[in-house]
Amino acid sequence: MPMMHVRVNPEKCQGHARCIAAVPEIFEEDEQGHSFARDEQVPADLVDAVRLAEQNCPELAIDVTDD
Ligand code: F3S
Questions:
Q1: What's the CA-to-centroid distance between 59 and ligand 1, angstroms?
Q2: How far does residue 16's CA lie from ligand 1's centre (Å)?
Q3: Looking at residues 9-21, what average pLDDT do you find?
């Protein structure tokens, strides 16, 4: 089964933190106030939440891939 992977593009992220509020199990704030994915492999029970975070990032900084 394909595994969903998530990354935050540091060039695009402006620190809106919606992703961190929505899925703190995955997204974490770094020292610059930007988000990063603490675990790039998304557990099955968080797939829907991560997809929603991807859609709700105003900077389109969240990249999701199935591989
Ligand atoms: Fe950055 Fe978007 Fe999250 S701007 S902090 S990836 S909501």
A1: 7
A2: 5
A3: 97
